[in-house]
Amino acid sequence: MHYATITGWGKCLPPATLTNDDLATFIDTSDEWIKPRTGISQRHISHVNTSELASVAAKRALAAAGIDGSEIDMIILATATPDTLIPNIASTVQANIGANCAAFDINAACSGFLYGVGLASAQIQSGQSKKVLVIGAERLSFFIDWSRRETAVLFGDGAGAVILEATDQPIGVLGYELNNDPAGRDILKSEFGTSMDRFEASSLDFYIEFNGKEIFKRAIAGMGKLSNKVIEKCGIEKDDIDWVIPHQANERIIDTLINRMKIPKEKAIVNIANYGNTSAATIPIAICDALEQGKIKPNQTILSCAFGAGLTSAAALIKW
Ligand code: ACO
């Protein structure tokens, strides 16, 4: 039996930051509104494409794992904001790291990174791949209508990457659950870049539309359901969980989820204050932050969960 364990990790946050006070200089908002409702203080804004953020994170993950790009046999890049739809931008990362392997993008929105981890682990467990690079990368700032305060304050840019390698030890990805609820397709969407563009000139006004209250409720329900399912499937107790690394869309969503799951708040990794919602990149960035802060230690058990447009949801249990 092969297991898939994380041997390398890296993140890339563009250097420019935009604070809540900066935002208040050009839209009708304030730190007093944003911070208590979302937990966000600032976000990073990229001047380069998603593939460049992804490539830097990938190179750092390779360096941490101590392996060369040529050793990777699959690249899975989760993004909802690719530089191009065709070709996929996993191929740009592939060229930048000198890999010769399968490479593709997936769009499962904010759940994309965990979808990638699930696919990578199945690929490794089956013996088909030995070293898989999974990346979550977004340049959401490019897709935001900066005059709409409802969305402009929520999102940020960034990338995170991990290397999953085969091992015979029972560590790494212990289990995962993936789901999608199409009944929620319309509550979070962006129609820019679709075939609709051909028919509707107005669709060039690209922006993300969503129903925040509905997402709030469904996010807690969706992440809770899949988290419980994967915990049960893996036969572990909630007390055995050392850290929870949830998607960072709103600190109040995380608080409510953790509370309902009866997991102590101190076990949640929360970094939304610094980055905002970076969609598919929030979880790998949070993994990097937790490691840099010396929080995650060998043999600890991590529950990670996410939700996003689709409405996708995902959960994974990882033994470090
Ligand atoms: N600054 C100041 N006022 C604002 C802002 C802003 N940035 N945005 C909205 N408002 C105003 C509204 O106009 C409204 O004013 P009104 O009462 O005079 O009409 C008032 O604040 C309340 O607006 P709501 O949209 O009802 O605010 P709510 O309390 O629902 O908070 C939020 C909005 C933070 C987005 C919340 O719904 C939420 O956290 N949702 C879940 C996360 C989410 O939706 N993320 C984006 C999708 S991406 C993802 O998560 C996968």
What does this entry look like structurally?
The chain is α/β, with parallel strands linked by helices and 320 residues long. The protein has 2 domains: 168 residues, Peroxisomal Thiolase, Chain A, domain 1 (3-Layer(aba) Sandwich), CATH 3.40.47; 147 residues, Peroxisomal Thiolase, Chain A, domain 1 (3-Layer(aba) Sandwich). It is built from 10 helices and 13 strands. The protein has a 5-stranded mixed sheet, with helices on both faces. Strand 12 and strand 13 form a beta hairpin. Helix 7 packs across helix 8. The longest helix is centred in the last third of the chain and has 23 residues. The site of acetyl coenzyme *A has 20 residues, from helix 2, helix 6 and helix 7.
Number of domains: 2
Helix vs. strand class = alpha/beta
**CATH homology superfamily of the largest domain:** Thiolase/Chalcone synthase
Oligomer: single chain
Largest sheet: 5 strands, mixed
Strand order of the largest sheet: 1-7-6-4-5
Ligands and ions found: acetyl coenzyme *A
Strand content: 15-25%
**Rg on CA atoms, Å:** 18 Å
By CATH reckoning, the class of the largest domain would read Alpha Beta
Percent helix range: 25-40%
Number of strands: 13
Indicate the overall shape.
Answer: globular
Q: Span from first to last CA?
A: 18 Å
CATH topology group of the largest domain? Peroxisomal Thiolase, Chain A, domain 1
List the helices and strands in order. EEHHEHEHEHEHEEEEHEHHHEE
Mean pLDDT: 94
Can you tell me the residue ranges where pLDDT is under 50 for at least 5 consecutive residues? none
- Identify the CATH architecture of the largest domain: 3-Layer(aba) Sandwich
